What does this fold into?
Amino acid sequence: MTGVTEQTRPRASVLRRVIVGVIIVSFGLAALGGIVVLLGAELGDPAWKVLGTTALVGAFSVAVLCCASLLGKRLQVIGLVGAVVALIAAVLSIIALWSQPSWEAELFWDVLWTTVAASVGLSFACLLLLLADRRQRVVRIGLIVTLALFALVFVLVVYPVWTDDAGGEAYSRTLGIASILAALGAIVVPVLSLLLRGRPDDAAPRPDALSPSTIARLEAEAARRGVTPDELVAELIWPATPPA
It folds into this structure.
């Protein structure tokens, strides 16, 4: 498993650099177009569309970067999915800006709003999932609860998009409360991970590491034999005289 992880990290690093490079180039071109428009004489409809494109490219570039932060991590597949969703949402948003499809094209608008909502949720989720390896129990519980709230908010937002059912007052109140709690968790969980760093839970041994009691026994046996712990381990693993 460790060998596979070590082989994956260089590829993830290259992929992350490619994504960042593409984002920089695309956003640079969009920004250049916006500057050219602002230096022009009039701000007509095409000019505002160029500026809107610049804003959309910048916003979704941030979303892709948030998702790309998981590349090379244990949950990098979620980051890849989030980056793809953000890219789809950006393309659909730019199409909507320039072609201005009719509101009767319900499927287009439903997919657009769904991908936009998913892009926002996955961006924040990917940033929080950087804390997935934290060992503090309160951080793990807070992370799970916050991600569940993100999922709930996404469902509540997308439901009326696809069903044309705006819901009642109770629905709106539930959406508001879930959104507030999700935003609270997105702030509190990272802060807790920083405040609790270095606590005993964070220093717990890895599942594949020697326990403190085993290390102490090795050191005691090495002291009894008058050798170092490394020499003792080498003698036990590679004995000078192989057994008959």
Summary: Helices lie at 2-38, 45-68, 76-99, 106-129, 137-163, 169-195, 212-225, 229-237.
